Amino acid sequence: MKGVQGVKGVKDVLVVLFDDVQSLDVTGPVEVFTGATYAAAASGGASGSPGYRVRTASLDGAPVRTSSGLTVVPDRSLAGGPTPHTLLVPGGHGPRSTDAGLVDAVRELAPRARRLVSVCSGALLLAEAGLLDGRRATTHWMFCEKLARDHPEVRVEADRIFVRDGHVATSAGVTAGIDLALALVEEDLGRDIALTVARHLVVFLRRPGNQAQFSAQLAAQTAQREPLREVQQWITEHPASDLSVEALAARARLSPRHFARAFQTETGVTPGRYVERVRLEHARRLLEDAAGGVEEVSRSCGYGTPEAMRRAFLKHLGTSPAEYRHRFRTTTPARC
Question: What is the pLDDT of residues 88-97, one digit of tens each?
């Protein structure tokens, strides 16, 4: 942005470009950082920082063609220009094949950056450069197995939308890059600026990094028959309701036995398992974002009692609801 050229305290963000890069991996975070800079200016300095100066760079400074066919002209080559505060490596076909020249350039530049970020399969490039050795990391679910297999020194956390480990942050596929960028903005400029950007982009302020890449709905298959799809949606929207097989079968206008068999056949999970996933996911979100007590959360999620919710958390997450909330609220890193 022209308005922050030469401004003291601005954080330089350099986005790596290459042929077949995923365009949304680039534009999603760029829109977040740029929007945050506008919001910081509009706040009259309330954020304490002027925001970001976003630049793009390809290996040789030449234009690149994204996987969707768009041509992007970078600002510079990776070898030129000042060292960025944040170096961001998006995903795409390039990092999957790990071009040697690109890997070498990122390996050389990364140690001088204050923060290293990847989106989607960009983590594969960072791993190839040895920049994730001994660190926790994630990537798009399609590449988690490859990352773990090819780079056993990386501690892959497949069921996360983003992972922070020191100054290195990796995120899952596509829109998770927006979630991570919003988390970085909140860390750098405060919650109000991040909220302004999220509202402008019409996205959640923050899906926490420890949220699963798949929601309960995505983890299961979508039923083929409309009555069963409607039941799936009803479960998601009414976790505190009576979600017994008998009650759900009545909504689908099927006998309980027929409903249970059809639901499992079409979604891949039993009705009880699906309800369990939805309630757990809903409880996690409330514990992360709401101020209500554990007893209130347990009632609003359909557990009935705090003890029932506690057993579910211990079974699936290995921790109690109270400890889960404590861990979530004490893992926000210090500002860079």
Answer: 999 987 566 5
Copy the structure tokens of residue 154: 């990386």
3-state secondary structure of 161: coil
DSSP line for 8-26 = TTPEEEEEE--TTB-HHHH
Instruction: Provide the terminal-to-terminal Cα distance of the chain, rounded to the nearest Å.
Output: 21
In a domain, 258, yes or no: yes
pLDDT at site 218? 46
pLDDT in tens, 51-82: 999 999 999 999 999 999 999 999 999 987 78
**Domain limit, last residue, from 178, 201, 224:** 201
Q: Give the catalytic positions in this structure.
A: 120
Pair (118, 179) in one structural domain: yes
Say which residue the tokens 């976790």 belong to. 239
Q: What is the pLDDT of residues 219-235, one digit of tens each?
A: 556 677 888 889 988 99
Alpha helices, H only, the chain: 23-42, 93-97, 100-109, 122-128, 144-150, 176-189, 191-201, 216-219, 226-237, 245-252, 256-267, 271-289, 294-300, 306-317, 321-329
The encoded tokens of residue 47 equal 């954020």
Q: Which of 39, 53, 43 lies closest to 3, judged by CA?
A: 53
Q: Are residues 143 and 261 in the same domain?
A: no
Identify the DSSP state of 111: G
Residue 197's domain spans which residues? Answer: 2-201
How would residue 332 be classed by pLDDT, with cut points 50, 70 and 90?
Answer: very low
pLDDT in tens, 267-284: 888 999 999 989 988 888
Distances (CA, A) of 75 to 10, 13, 93, 95, 102: 18, 12, 21, 20, 16
Closest CA to 205 of 181, 226, 222, 171: 181
CB 170 within 8 A of CB 123: yes
